[in-house]
Automatic annotation (TrEMBL):
Top-rank taxon: Bacteria
Presence of keyword Iron-sulfur: no
InterPro entries to which the protein is assigned, alphabetical: 6-hairpin_glycosidase_sf, 6hp_glycosidase-like_sf, Alpha_rhamnosid, Bac_rhamnosid6H, Bac_rhamnosid_C, Bac_rhamnosid_N, FN3_sf, Ig-like_fold
Domain Alpha-L-rhamnosidase six-hairpin glycosidase: 434-777
Domain Bacterial alpha-L-rhamnosidase N-terminal: 149-318
Pfam family, one: Bac_rhamnosid_C
Name of the molecule in the record: alpha-L-rhamnosidase
Organism: Paenibacillus segetis
Domain Alpha-L-rhamnosidase C-terminal: 784-848
Keywords from the UniProt entry: Hydrolase
Domain Alpha-L-rhamnosidase concanavalin-like: 328-430
Enzyme Commission number(s): 3.2.1.40
Leading EC class: hydrolase
Catalysed reactions listed for this entry: Hydrolysis of terminal non-reducing alpha-L-rhamnose residues in alpha-L-rhamnosides
Amino acid sequence: MTELNVFNLTAEYRSQLLGTGVTRPRMSWQLESDKNGTYQTAYRVQVNVSGEDFIAPLWDTEKVESDSSVLVQYEGPELRSSTRYYYRVKVWDNFGRESEWSEAGWWETALLDVREWKAAWITPDPQHINPQVDPAFMLRRTVHLEGGEIASARIYATALGVYELYLNGAKVGEDLLAPGWTSYNKRLQYQTYDVTKQVRAGDNAVGIMLANGWYKGRLGWENQSNHYGERRAALVQLHISYEDGSEEVIVSDANWRGLTGPVRFSEIYDGETYDARLDHPGWSEATFADEDWQPTVTLNHPFSGLRAQENVPTRITEILKPVSVILTPSGETVLDMGQNMVGRIRMQVEAPRDQIITLTHAEVLDKDGNFYIGNIRTAKQTVKYTAAGAGKESYAPHFTFQGFRYVKIEGYPGQENGLPLEAFTGEVIHSEMDRTGHFECSDEMVNQLQRNIVWGQRGNFLDVPTDCPQRDERLGWTGDTQVFAGAALFNYNASPFFSKWLRDLAADQLPDGGVPFVVPNVLSGYSSAAWGDAATIVPWAVYSAYGDKRLLSEQYSSMKAWVDYIRSQGDKEHVWDTGFHFGDWLALDAKEGSYIGATPSLMVTAAYFALSTRIVRDTAEVLGYIEDAAYYGKLANRIVQAYRNEFITPNGRVAAQTQTAQILALTFDLADPKDRPRISKELNEMIVDNDYHLTTGFVGTPYLCFALSDNGYHETAVKLLLQQTYPGWLYSVSKGATTIWEHWDGIKPDGSFWSDDMNSYNHYAYGAIGEWMYRRITGLSPESGSPGYKRIQIAPKFEGGRLSYAKAHFRSIYGVIEAGWAFRGEQVEVNVVVPPNTTADIRLPDVKLTAVRVNEDLLSEGGGILRIEQKKDAVFLEAGSGKYVFTFPRSAATYRIWTPDMHFSELVQWESARQILDQHAPGLTENLGLLRNFPLAAAAFNPMGSVISEQQYEVISAELSLISE
């Protein structure tokens, strides 16, 4: 039996792609091998439409000599609508082995031609039900099926608003807030549901609940509704296929009937009001009597914008239990969920009829421990439930979501005697992306920071990448999205999520190329540097992570249009000096009363102009547009030269002495190479002189640690990461944060708050640090010029000894990649996993080649090692697939520890310090990684318990002080 296997097949990134509008789906697969250094040399793909036997496949590639195993495009006969296609793969490898056929995967098409829609948009007759009423509409129809035994059934549905679909008394599917939020007037998703097991011969009933959602509800902070239309409507088409080959289609039309029901009010910002007394039990059953329901009418709404579901659906992804009940000083009863989450509370209650129970949601308690809702501004985040008095009742909101950790409960029966925790559960809701990335290190506060980054992404990746999930905003801010995209694509497979959002960006882009501040656009603002640059940065980030050339091709016109728009602004061709710009938003060096940092906006506009132009140049090269590549390459060079002329002095200093100004010059590669040492030195001095604190905002912060690590100051970057006092990433962790804050001091050291007007406690932008943690601490990156991790770079940085281990686990499209390192006594251990059909370039720092062992063997004897090279003080390796454990002696640089100086100014060499530590506390050095702050203060040893005594500490500290002097 061969030990070469093909598994984990996906089509358009999904293992089960139901209802796609893609006419040339792309297939990916992964390899499993018992040999190191395995790569694919050929593949064969078969696609079949008649089941999984593949006796007479629809399409057979035969054997193709190629190492391609991701996003391989179907090139067979034209696909048919509403059809399931099966596919399987076999491969050959460099050891001459042929795999068995994989298990079959499948995709299923939706309606590929808009003319196949036979349904009509329907809404209650306005003569009977006012279209502007708050209550959700309930629409239904009974149908009789006489076609015999049912082979399969599908419902295609969407809405002007948000909807829930029901069939024969049960909710259809697990999707929430469908059809999601798009630029509705240009693009509207519809969903496909497999209802084969829910339909039956004879009488059936289809029902749909319909609320305002993003389409008609309140959005933005100007109390404005009806952004896309004033009428809610539904579109439903049920396709039945019978075993005899016949088909039947049931559609939404004027034969449906409608009414309002128990959902009396539901808005994204404000919550939901539900009156269980007004429920219609069995309303989606065929036996329900609807004679008193009102007629419906059809709307003349276009079908041209309909798109089969592109993004992954929004669903419940986790259930949380409350951790405690709090009675606040002001006498309020509050649930603590233990985590700032996004979703809803499901409540079980047995209450008398007419009992009103109110749930109000908040992120934090104030410094006195009282319930605080000032920062949600005009959003109400309130759920009201009126009991029917029918015994045990269960309820969760249908058409809204809240951002919260704390829930104030009012009116729950018997709550004065204590709330039953088991009656409440938190249902976490977000786009159902696959988790791909995990990061961990020896510092538990950093691990909490990473958890906060992930929770921030979960809370704000709810169909669109929102800025925050709690106040009266929740908009797809382009600036927040582009700075976080890199981290987002580590944590989750966000390619379908971003692809859908980028299509909306292109749809909302102005004819002159201007890009709105938010996407989908419900505001009036357009075209700020660093915000509009999402048009180029995000598609390139997805391409880097997944090698998705099709997305680049789709977005290329939008990307070019953005750069051309910038070039057309003002009188200076290479400097964007017109219009409004957010600049280094929320930077701490801003003038009093301003949100915009001290870094001149012209520097920000010029830097991003150069970055986006280079991305367009590189995209043109990838897509084979040679003339465009040359044109934008020359333009980029001129922009960089204009930047140097304008903003860098003849002596090599950046004209603006702010942290962000130095960062942009370095990370955007704007400075002349001869000037980089001075600029990076001055950036480092700015950080050190500020007691290892930052002053950066949305523009500078994502790149700050990259600028330091990549220019010789990685230790400073790590100190910044580990900084626990304001401002720094771990300050919020020290204050109990479980998500990323909008402001570094959202909660001040004295417990008071930043201003109510803009103070989100779930605002992911500063979580961009996660990308640096993956790429520089563990060293895991896609190799430049080899997107999708076909070629992997693993270059860990662990000088300084402030962390004793770090590891990353990343599920790439090729398979699992692992990169980690740890100090084991006087040895360094670097662990690497390289998936089949990829190679890795590995850099081991501060070591000689002869000192390195791999899996306990000499490097030259390690299976899978393709190349070995010594460069100065580092060993460079090229490795094929496999698991590798590299070990080598620790260098002096990795043995450094912090001195008693509270400002971390001097470092002592390990060998001298180790002798002292071993003399006075034998074995302590083995635990050095646990003593990151040693010996800053005696308090640093509290977590260590009896590791050393107070007397030992005093002796050790004194002797180390002498060494440092």
